[in-house]
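Action item from last week, closing it out:
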Amino acid sequence: MANKDPVKIGVLYSETGATSAIESSQLLGTLLAIDEINEHGGIDGRELVAVRYDPQSDQQQFRVLAEKLVTTDNVNVIFGCYMSSTRKAVIPVVERYNRILFYATLYEGFEFSNNLIYTGAAPNQNSVQLADFMMSSFGGRVYLVGSDYIYPYESNRIMSDLVSQRPGGERVARRYVPVDAGPGDFNEIIADIKDKQPDFIFSTVVGNATQHLYKAFAEAGLDPKKMPIASLTTSEVEVAQMGAAAAAGHFTAAPYFQSVDTAANHACLEKITKRYGDKAIPNACWEAAYFQVHLFANAMRASGSDRIDALMPKLLGSEFMAPQGRVRIEPSNHHTCLYPRIGRVNQKGQFTIVRASTTAVVPDPYLVTHSLGDWTLALDEMGN
């Protein structure tokens, strides 16, 4: 008799704490994919069920709850984590028990685990393109501002290296704020920016603190047309928090924006809006959280099991038509082939795509042989 028991998966996204807004969007992307899979008969007739916990944006809670998912709930696959510090807290758990973690967030690269699937952008799929675009458009003097943890340190190191490789490239300053930074934490930084006058600001501030940087920039009378903020971590979620007035004119590099014009994206946006209304704010991390569940379900159908030895060979090399385009898991490094894009926030609080890759860029998490990809300029250009 065929097994009709539910397939349990672990889901670890914070619904409270400093990164709750962006992680809640990842949770909704995960739940949307689960709903779609179950509406089409589940996985070979087996319902897909999420065993979810709220790690409260706390590194220690991620580790404790990951261990609970494995040892108490007996799940073989976990979807979760946003900050790199939380991913690194969970890695020893999935490696010790030989389980799989799907990680749907852009990150600093320079990592590999046989127990991970990385569906967010690696540095050669966002940092390289952003550095090239900002230096070509505004100049080479960059001021680095980040949250005080692993990802911003490493991302700023990469951006510094990329900037220094170009004539006239210079890191003007590098500053960090607490992960839970408030409005007052940016006053001195903004004053220093006004004094040093960089060509652009590179922000790796994350979570709820992001809005305070952009609001402080606007309140200081700084002009994004002359000295914009460029980021990898400012998505539609953070723009909604700060408001379009503070965000307009600034840039983000990501594989996905709500404004991506594909049939898969239009259909997905319609579904998420119908289910969750204004509660859902699609963004790059939401999209990766969504499509990685479908990649898992397809691989489990092909393997007949969610155990790592059976599942991983079917995951590696697998493809899915995601909202951003057709994505593929690269077998050599467990990262995902993605489509780099540069977006500029418009007056409606959405991203106008000003540059995009016409083909998927193969992930190179160690930046061994990176290239800028095949860029094509969008119709709505910089002058608007």
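Closing note: The radius of gyration is 20 Å.
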